[in-house]
Amino acid sequence: xxxxxxxxxxxxxxxxxxxxxxxxxxxxxxxxxxxxxxxxxxxxxxxxxxxxxxxxxxxxxxxxxxxxxxxxxxxxxxxxxxxxxxxxxxxxxxxxxxxxxxxxxxxxxxxxxxxxxxxxxxxxxxxxxxxxxxxxxxxxxxxxxxxxxxxxxxxxxxxxxxxxxxxxxxxxxxxxxxxxxxxxxxxxxxxxxxxxxxxxxxxxxxxxxxx
Length: 211
Description:
With 211 residues, the protein is of the alpha+beta class. The protein has seven helices and nine strands. It has helices at residues 30-39, 55-67, 70-73, 78-92, 117-139, 142-153, 196-205; strands at 12-17, 43-47, 96-100, 110-113, 169-171, 174-175, 180-181, 183-186, 192-194.
């Protein structure tokens, strides 16, 4: 699992799409950047590469899952949701900034947004329903998807739940009528961590997204 974001080094601005020129976050620590953003009335909307969510991020994730169709919601995890939120921010017209949290020029690492969370959540749900397979492919590169399979086959334990951060994941497959998705479930918050190759196969063999 990814390290909690507060353990990372200084921030580097990768992309700025905001009408807030007073944002000066280059080489700030995570805590320093958070204080600057909070002072401007901005909230950390999502961190897609961390194993620990802030209370606000968890609330947002849960709202997306609640609003998504039930058959889609079970296939969602924080990283996949973050990619849909990225696109929803692009379509929302609200002020936000994307930052490079790991210094590798990946723009899908974090978003801060001023207001409009309701509209962003609704847009994210629509995008997830229409493009779930695309978001899974984007959020998990091929190596990562293969690693998830290897971890399952080796019967290794995942270190922490990506939602609550606790080491409380148990191996538990999700059984459907004619398909099995290899999964770990968090005994604390109930979140599922899925083998993404199984999710993709499930999407391709079931007419899920057109229901």
